[in-house]
Design brief:
Blueprint: H1 21-31, E1 37-40, H2 47-58, E2 62-66, H3 73-84, H4 90-97, E3 105-109, E4 114-118, H5 125-139, E5 146-151, H6 156-159, H7 163-171, E6 177-183, H8 186-194, E7 205-208, H9 214-225, H10 232-243, H11 247-262, H12 270-281, H13 283-291, H14 295-306, H15 314-320, H16 325-337, E8 341-344, E9 347-350, H17 353-364
Parallel strand pairs: 1-6, 1-7, 2-5, 5-6
Antiparallel strand pairs: 3-4, 8-9
Helix pairs in contact: 1-2, 3-5, 5-7, 9-10, 10-11, 11-12, 14-17
Length: 365
């Protein structure tokens, strides 16, 4: 049986990667220079897949740390060192650690054969971070310059006050590393890299990552559905209309539609059937999410689900009793920060198209 050609929820490359010709060209040029990159896009737009695709083609050493999962400066240092230990011989890492100002305790985890590190809790985090960040430069070479990626970089301000200042003070002296900073909260990332008072002001080239162009996405879907159904063009169009070209949701929907089409008892409309099934599967999750919202947030999401009106328009406020423009704006900002909505080139839209349909169904039930 032919393998399902769609993949979601993971970093993708090879046949699962949808080519972004212009973005690949821009990222490659930056990483082939002495510059750093700042990439902004909503979650699950494919930032990491794009970076890894370029890095794999460049054949350069690469580490990635997700700051959303980091709890302290010491934890950040440990995560950096752990990832470097996957690229270099353990003895080389141990030798480097012996020269640290504060030498960590190292244990080899027998389950995955990776190192676990811990620092004396009474130690100052400043020299720990200093040594860990400088180790990236130390292990890099002019022939194989390291690429260090920090995902959800806006979290740096949560981890510890002035940690951004310390990191910049170290990174600005590195000559053999390209730093890549990824972020999903545009206002926070722009404040870090565009605010003149920020230590990271203009530290890298800012690159907003947009959705995959509709035509490119259509060709990708159509080509993969063609061997299994004569309705490949119609199905590709329906998937993109429902997902609004959001790469994660389009790939997810395409995966399950493909499975429907492989079933001898396939439904007459596999896309609609799959959407209904996905909404049913996520029903309890969506209900839990809904209960976390306040009344204004609920009104905004209901209005955005039931109409195409701009949530900042008078017509929207009047129709859905959403309140003053200032109240709506505060709600939109809160919903964006929590990942419910995103700001697109044309305005605001609900991030999860299945959640949007769940709201509509609940309202019409």
């Amino acid at each position: 049986m032919q393998e399902n050609p769609f993949k979601f929820g993971q970093v993708v490359d090879g046949p699962y990667f949808i080519t972004r010709k212009e973005e690949i060209k821009q990222v490659t040029a930056l990483l082939n220079s002495a510059n750093n990159l700042v990439m902004i896009s909503p979650r699950r737009y494919g930032k990491t897949s794009l970076i890894e695709h370029v890095v794999n083609n460049l054949n350069r050493p690469y580490i990635k740390v997700d700051l959303q999962l980091v709890t302290s400066p010491e934890d950040l240092a440990a995560q950096i060192i752990k990832r470097l230990s996957r690229l270099f011989p353990l003895e080389k890492i141990k030798q480097a650690l012996n020269s640290f100002q504060i030498v960590p305790e190292i244990n080899l985890n027998p389950l995955n054969n990776e190192i676990d590190l811990s620092f004396d809790p009474a130690s100052s985090p400043k020299p720990i971070i200093e040594d860990a960040i400088n180790l990236i430069e130390q292990l890099s070479t002019p022939q194989k310059r390291m690429i260090a990626v920090f995902d959800e970089f806006q979290e740096i301000r949560r981890i510890e006050k002035d940690l951004d200042r310390q990191l910049h003070a170290l990174m600005q002296h590195h000559q053999q590393v390209n730093y890549v900073f990824l972020g999903s909260q545009e206002s926070l990332i722009r404040d870090i890299f565009e605010n003149k008072k920020s230590p990271f002001f203009q530290f890298g080239q800012l690159m907003p990552l947009q959705k995959i162009p509709t035509l490119d996405f259509f060709d990708f879907l159509s080509d993969r559905f063609k061997p299994i159904t004569p309705e490949y063009n119609r199905i590709a169009t329906s998937i993109l209309e429902i997902s609004r070209c959001h790469s994660y949701y389009a790939q997810q929907l395409a995966f399950f539609v493909y499975e429907q089409l492989r079933d001898p008892q396939q439904p007459a409309d596999p896309v609609s059937e799959t959407v209904s099934e996905l909404i049913r599967i996520h029903d309890m999750h969506y209900e839990r999410l809904w209960k976390t919202l306040n009344t204004t947030d609920m009104k905004i999401l209901i209005g955005m689900s039931l109409s195409e009106l701009s949530p900042l328009s008078e017509a929207f406020s009047h129709t859905f009793h959403a309140g003053a423009t200032s109240t709506i704006f505060s709600s939109l900002k809160r919903l964006a920060e929590n990942g419910f909505i995103q700001k697109s080139e044309t305005g605001y839209e609900i991030d999860d198209p299945f959640f949007k349909r769940w709201i509509t169904q609940r309202r019409n039930r």
